[in-house]
Design goal:
It is a single chain. This protein is mostly helical and 226 residues long. It starts with 20 loop residues before the first helix and ends in a 15-residue tail after the last helix. The chain folds into 2 domains: 53 residues, Arc Repressor Mutant, subunit A (Orthogonal Bundle), CATH 1.10.10.60; 130 residues, Tetracycline Repressor, domain 2 (Orthogonal Bundle), CATH 1.10.357. Helix 4 crosses helix 7. The protein is elongated, with a radius of gyration of 25 Å. The protein contains 10 helices and no strands.
Length: 226
């Protein structure tokens, strides 16, 4: 007489392991970061307007449905790219301006961190620079807010250094704009450590910013004083 096929049961006391929420969040975060990196490269190579969600999914080697599980639209991916070069520096770099030390010491630390972050996020920075106008007004306003806040913090530490006599007295707002423009310009020519050593870039830029290019003249070369 035949009967139902017995189904093996788990041994008494056996617990089937479940994915911990923290592990799941980590995996999700890593997948989103991968999507942002690949999408930034795709946008940089083909242009934001020429790329669709299917193109990004193909570049990642996943199905479109899997991509939509993490991002609802191409614009949302662009928004995440822009956050990686605006909110991320605010969170990672600006605490250096609140550390102990003189304005010059704190600003030097920021310059070093800024360049290193820019080299790490070079493609994302260029995409954000050229494609930010494609964001929704709400997302664009948030990104601009991070940029303005970062600039204001740099301006304030420059102003503090000027008041204390560490820096020349200049318009601190213009000085902050010029400093950040010089730093961000690294992204237009450097391609990573294969073209120039990161440490050398950092050292050269900090030397130019805080010591200038003119060689200090010895007293005998400085000319007569009147």
């Amino acid at each position: 007489m035949s009967g139902p096929v017995p189904v093996p049961s788990e041994p008494c006391g056996t617990v089937v392991p479940a994915v911990e929420p923290a592990v799941r969040r980590k995996r999700t975060g890593e997948r989103r970061a991968e999507i942002v990196t690949v999408a930034a490269r795709t946008f940089a190579e083909q242009g934001y307007s020429n790329v669709g969600m299917r193109d990004i999914a193909d570049a990642l080697g996943i199905r479109s449905a899997s991509l939509y599980h993490h991002f609802s639209s191409k614009e949302e991916i662009l928004y995440a790219i822009c956050l990686s070069v605006t909110r991320e520096p605010v969170e990672e770099n600006l605490p250096l301006l609140d550390a102990a030390g003189t304005p010059a010491e704190r600003l030097t630390a920021l310059v070093r961190a800024h360049i290193r972050h820019l080299l790490r996020r070079r493609v994302e920075f260029l995409v954000g620079l050229h494609e930010r106008s494609s964001l929704t007004p709400e997302h664009r306003a948030e990104i601009d807010g991070y940029l303005h806040f970062y600039n204001r913090r740099v301006r304030d530490v420059l102003a503090a250094g000027m008041r204390g006599g560490e820096f020349r007295e200049l318009n601190p707002s213009l000085a902050a704009l010029g400093l950040l423009d010089m730093l961000n310009g690294v992204s237009s020519w450097i391609r990573g450590e294969q073209d120039a050593d990161t440490d050398e870039v950092v050292e050269t830029y900090t030397a130019m910013l805080f010591h200038g290019l003119a060689e200090r003249l010895a007293p005998e070369r400085a000319g007569p004083r009147h």
